[in-house]
């Protein structure tokens, strides 16, 4: 009986892992649809290879850093057949690794959308290894595993731990603010802003692929959030309905604020989902709706500010989407999670605000540091000729529609 | 132990909800691939925004109408932590809401394919709110929740309730017949039928996107049908195999009747799945195969009759697909569900025939009423110039392939 | 309680079935993206119709051959409500059928990619019926159900049965080697190799669709492998992490060996997954990584050898992908499954090597036989004119982008 119970948890976490893995397809197609045609192949390959490298780095270093568990023991122990080991029966911990590896790989996938169309392949791969192997697990371990006693300190100071149920901060704010550092270090695409200072936006290649990317992300996100409970005993329908309502809120406000623009509507859904992660287990559905609705507006306004005012050439708007909406999600958790606002309580507004700002700041510093070091050593940018031809032909020797192009 | 049991049901229903949510991506891409290029963006945005509005209307009004449960209580009660509440432990009812909300949102998604390429955005949004907030929950509550004692009356008259396990009638027939009213009220696209009365079919923009839509719908449909059991104690493999066999039947007959046309083959799979919903828990797999096979033929013939004989410009053929095949499914449930035809029994042919016709009639009346009122007040149709330019540029100010089009 | 336990297994197997069903969409889009534009529709329709015919053949003949269970009994018995029947409570065996039917249908889906662009529709349909109805179930029954006592004999000779947990041999090697016979029997596409003997590769139509196909296959593959446990009591996280690591290994080595070519990278992921199926329950994750990494190289090198040296016009490279990597997976299971190499043990290198070679040889013979008979009777190849126009217009009377093409 006990066995089946654990089998259920293995199945539950596996389903979550598969759903979040599918989100990486979403990242790939969202980027491929948003960049120009000449950089579509690069978007697809970059996401897939980054996923592979992330998994290797997280397997060898990252997961051990965050959770103190190493896989360099026999398969018998891993499968949980040897008595008294740390892996749980039926290899439960191995599925937990799979689930969390798909989270870790979201960090380079987020950055990828910001640095698209002019980044070299090798430095992006190295940055992935450094971020997923070392820096992300540091944040993850502190917030989700109580490493270094920092959560205990926060709790003793504010009365509650920094609450981040499904990673508005750990994954999205961290990834989005790293991306900000990366994008600024990299510089804008040629022609994006003229010498005279005028903005010249590049239209996306395909709304259909952009939309497919968004759908894959939205669908998988319910695994991202609900399966973060990590067991059938603690799964809650509240997380599901809150994710739904926040997504809906993001769609509606982004449709209005973005004047029915398809890019804003499809990214608005994601904005709501980014923001709801942290508090999805403590919000009332109406709190989630408001949180997501505000996120939709943050994305639309943030995108404009980022690209037009600050002149930061963040191609997919990953800093507003993951960075700003993730930050907002961390803070919103301290507001709409309060019992007096219909929430479940147990959160501290002070802890949430300070914690969210610290995670964002750490991400930005990490982004500038990692991409700065790479820039000053091996270089991070395609040369002008390569960028002009496009990353597809320059790096992959083939375009996205080879038959039509070769003719 | 009890707890895990409920956790399993939460997980089960959540998986169903995710699968049916993914079907909405399928609706979007099926429509985008079938309409002309200049209306693809509109198809995508319409489905996503309709989904969001549906969820809001169903949350605030629809679900309370159908099931007498309101969400305007504290998160503690929603999560099922407070003793003796109606929401079940671990927020079970919240996932049930999510699952059923994805069903409710199928109604505007079905209609969307019929009214494509010339419908204004605002009236479609209002129609969505009215249909999902008020009219659909009425049907749903009567058939699935026994509201107003109507099922009890049917049972006392015919010996069995109106059986509609997964919604051939509640969702598909209702949605398809509403769509008929909407499409007739709206009128045909400019140029679809010439003044001299000749039919001038518009070829679909992309078989690939049409196919992707169909695949997403087919895949999610197994959640639509099997998870309609709503608990692990009542889930049955019979529903799964019957859905499979009906889909297979639809593919084979539509391929033959439709002479290997890709549109017919891909929609034939859906026709079989529409028809099997009602009786998927009572059919023998061979009964399901026949039901689906007949549905494939109904779609191919119905599509031709609708578009060429009746000159109803139902763009995706949603009336033959959901309306006629749904009606057929409701009736077939009363035939192949009988024990003497290998089925599980417990169904009444009379109840199924009469009930199916009533649901279809109610849908048609609702369609004419809702779209008729909107037509005579705010108007429902793009003006000629807008229709000519396409809904994408007219409503969303951008086409589906912006980079190529702006060049 | 017992009931819920079985409900959990029904849900588990159903999820596996849905995931593997979705892989067929992956087969369709992988082929559509790799072939030339004029054959995309044919790819999509062929996969869908083959799936339907496979299911029929497997329902009527194949599953009964492999497992000795027939569905021609009442729905009551099928649903497991009649006492003492073979179908298990809650229709468990029916979902098992669904799950295994999606495996069986992979055989024609694999072949489809090899014979693309010049195969007639009817003989391909007949081959599907013969392969899935008769030949595949023979292999499946012998290896997975112990039919004819052959596994018992292997065990008595080598100390262990032929181990093929999730079908590197049963599905992939068999399908890939049948495809080799089919492709050779069919002959190369017109113009692929010039009369003077020069190779003239046809570039793929769309990397985006190729990539989507790969993503759908990768995602569903976790159901293919993990759900092969067939019950919650025997599910193991080890299978999940091994599948992940092998996929990652295939991506990395194919990216390097294939010089970042998108076709190689996306198929490299599949190569790793093909190879890991057999031993996914006995490998250490590092053994899985190595197995997948070698598979990535086998695919890249094998593709070149197949197409350029051997001049076999296997369009998608299904023989290197499924045939060679499947064969390698069967053998690798006997190496990295050994306890001294970190594995779980219980495998025999001799049994694995000999068994793998026999399955491959049987597949090749079956392929030459089935397609040879069809060639010498009804013919298997489009005529020159049809091939030149493309299978889409020749067979389906419509192209993949009808609106653009008809203009």
TrEMBL record, chains A, B, C:
Membrane topology: Multi-pass membrane protein
Alphabetical UniProt keywords: Membrane, Transmembrane, Transmembrane helix
Matching Pfam families: Ammonium_transp
Cross-referenced Gene3D superfamilies: Ammonium transporter AmtB like domains
TM ranges: 6-30, 51-73, 93-114, 126-145, 165-186, 207-224, 236-257, 264-283, 289-306, 318-338, 350-374
Localization in the cell: Membrane
Major location category of this protein: membrane
Residues annotated as domain Ammonium transporter AmtB-like: 12-397
The keyword Mitochondrion is annotated on this UniProt entry: no
PANTHER family given in the database record: AMMONIUM TRANSPORTER, AMMONIUM TRANSPORTER SLL0108-RELATED
Protein name: Amt family ammonium transporter
Source species of the chain: Rhizobium aquaticum
